[in-house]
């Protein structure tokens, strides 16, 4: 890889243009300049190949964000491209459905334990919101309890600190419980007898379920007559082909799939029990013009065909486990265990910083990220590994992380990031 051109001239010019006309200068908060040390990081990318991407100034990076999860095979994969191009030649959207919808639905039913019927939408927020609506229709109840991030729609975002614009009446309908804390869920049921329509959760958070958490969630949910929804927008196609429900052998009533399904194509789905899914035919309105858009469907079919190979998930897990082991060694050797922690399962794992002396976790993460970028690594803390990443890519990351953690140590010693942090600080939207 060439030495990084750190003036980011073109990125800065584009950012200036974007800031005045595009809120956050990106379509997803987590892709905005606020998530990548502004001024000392690229703000715009040009293209990708495999596990690598190139920014608009011609700098190459090994990308461990993978577009926030969708890229499971690798950027710009020839096999997926070929499938898309052949559909492109026939047309993208039609007046009637195409056979591709049936083929992909059959495939999802084959790989997802809970799937008896399937409906396609376009992004994760569509898929979680549709599942919640189905649960409300099925139970004839209004309250929902959630655990995780579930997208930008009112029913969920109203329960967060970013709830401006969501009516109070809607905010009150969503309760939140804590991962691996079954008592927090029990309390919700106790306080809202016969009122909870759905329990929706990201089934794998942090280091995964403890003490049969998922089994217990399922039991309590069903005992109270509610619908269990797994939000598998991240865990689907990443932990295993059939997501967390396959990996942990706990089958929900409904699941929302998205991100990793189409190697970057815009596609998501609600899958689940026939009895509930059938309500879409009976007045539970879930319908979108682009649900059957062919390039996304065929991209998903091509992606799943690649991920289905036995070696695929083995590779992803192997890389992630190597990364975890090596990073932990660095943390131990540098005596940084009270500052930074390795979290997550191998395919979706990373580091989480803690406040230290005058420095916030965001200060420390910014130093870490900036140093990685200088070494040609893109990361927002939690990494995604894809099929195209290699052992060499992981080794390059480890070497860069060695230096990055050294810089973190330097900042802690100085009790300041002055002179160390060259760009803006990492500023996530969710601060709690
Ligand atoms: C677990 C989970 N659910 C839902 C969503 C929303 O997906 P989208 O951004 O595609 O609407 C996300 C997005 O990050 C997610 O991580």
Radius of gyration: 22 Å
At the third CATH level, what is the topology name of the largest domain? Answer: Aspartate Aminotransferase, domain 2
Q: Label the structural class.
A: alpha/beta
CATH superfamily of the largest domain: Type I PLP-dependent aspartate aminotransferase-like (Major domain)
Low-confidence segments, given as residue ranges, are none
The biggest beta sheet, please? 7 strands, mixed
Write up this protein:
The protein has 432 residues and is α/β, with parallel strands linked by helices. It has two domains: 9-75 and 310-414, Aspartate Aminotransferase, domain 1 (Alpha-Beta Complex), CATH 3.90.1150; 93-292, Type I PLP-dependent aspartate aminotransferase-like (Major domain) (Aspartate Aminotransferase, domain 2, 3-Layer(aba) Sandwich). It is built from 14 helices and 14 strands. It has helices at 9-21, 78-88, 99-111, 124-139, 154-157, 168-171, 182-191, 213-223, 243-247, 274-277, 294-307, 310-333, 361-374, 391-414, and strands at 45-49, 52-55, 60-63, 117-121, 143-147, 174-176, 196-201, 227-232, 254-257, 268-272, 340-345, 348-353, 377-378, 382-384. Helix 2 (78-88) runs antiparallel to helix 11, helix 3 (99-111) runs parallel beside helix 11 and helix 12 packs parallel to helix 14 (391-414). It is globular and about 60 Å long. It binds pyridoxal-5'-phosphate. Pyridoxal-5'-phosphate binds next to helix 4.
């Amino acid at each position: 890889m060439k030495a990084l051109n750190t003036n980011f001239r073109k990125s800065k010019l584009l950012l200036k243009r974007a800031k005045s006309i595009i809120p956050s200068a990106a379509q997803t908060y987590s892709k905005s300049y606020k998530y990548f040390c502004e001024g000392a990081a690229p703000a715009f990318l040009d293209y990708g190949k495999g596990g690598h991407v190139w920014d608009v100034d011609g700098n190459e990076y090994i990308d461990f964000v993978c577009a926030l999860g969708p890229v499971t095979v690798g950027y710009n994969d020839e096999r997926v491209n070929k499938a898309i191009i052949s559909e492109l030649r026939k047309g993208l959207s039609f007046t009637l459905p195409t056979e591709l919808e049936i083929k992909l639905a059959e495939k999802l039913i084959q790989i997802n334990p809970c799937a008896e019927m399937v409906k396609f939408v376009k992004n994760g927020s569509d898929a979680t919101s549709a599942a919640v609506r189905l649960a409300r229709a099925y139970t004839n109840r209004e309250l929902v309890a959630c655990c995780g991030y579930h997208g930008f729609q009112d029913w969920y975002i109203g329960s967060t600190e970013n709830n401006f614009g969501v009516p109070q009446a809607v905010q009150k309908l969503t309760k939140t419980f804590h991962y691996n804390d079954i008592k927090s869920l029990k309390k919700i049921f106790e306080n809202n007898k016969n009122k909870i329509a759905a329990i929706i959760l990201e089934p794998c958070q942090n280091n995964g379920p403890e003490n049969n958490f998922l089994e217990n969630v399922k039991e309590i949910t069903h005992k109270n007559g509610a619908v269990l929804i797994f939000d598998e927008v991240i865990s689907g196609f990443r932990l295993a082909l059939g997501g967390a429900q396959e990996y942990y052998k706990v089958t929900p009533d409904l699941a929302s799939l998205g991100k990793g399904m189409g190697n970057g194509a815009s596609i998501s789905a609600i899958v689940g029990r026939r009895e509930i899914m059938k309500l879409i035919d009976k007045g539970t309105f879930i319908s979108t013009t682009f649900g059957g858009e062919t390039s996304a469907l065929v991209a998903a079919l091509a992606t799943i065909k690649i991920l289905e190979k036995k070696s695929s998930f083995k590779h992803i897990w192997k890389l992630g486990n190597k990364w975890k082991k090596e990073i932990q060694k660095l943390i131990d050797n540098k005596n940084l265990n009270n500052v930074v922690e390795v979290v997550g399962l191998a395919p979706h794992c990373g580091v989480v910083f803690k406040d230290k002396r005058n420095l916030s976790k965001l200060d420390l993460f910014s130093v870490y990220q900036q140093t990685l970028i200088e070494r040609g690594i893109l990361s927002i803390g939690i990494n995604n590994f894809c099929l195209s990443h290699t052992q060499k890519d992981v080794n390059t990351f480890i070497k860069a992380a060695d230096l990055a953690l050294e810089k973190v140590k330097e900042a802690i010693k100085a009790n300041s990031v002055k002179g160390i942090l060259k760009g803006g600080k990492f500023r996530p939207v969710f601060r709690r």
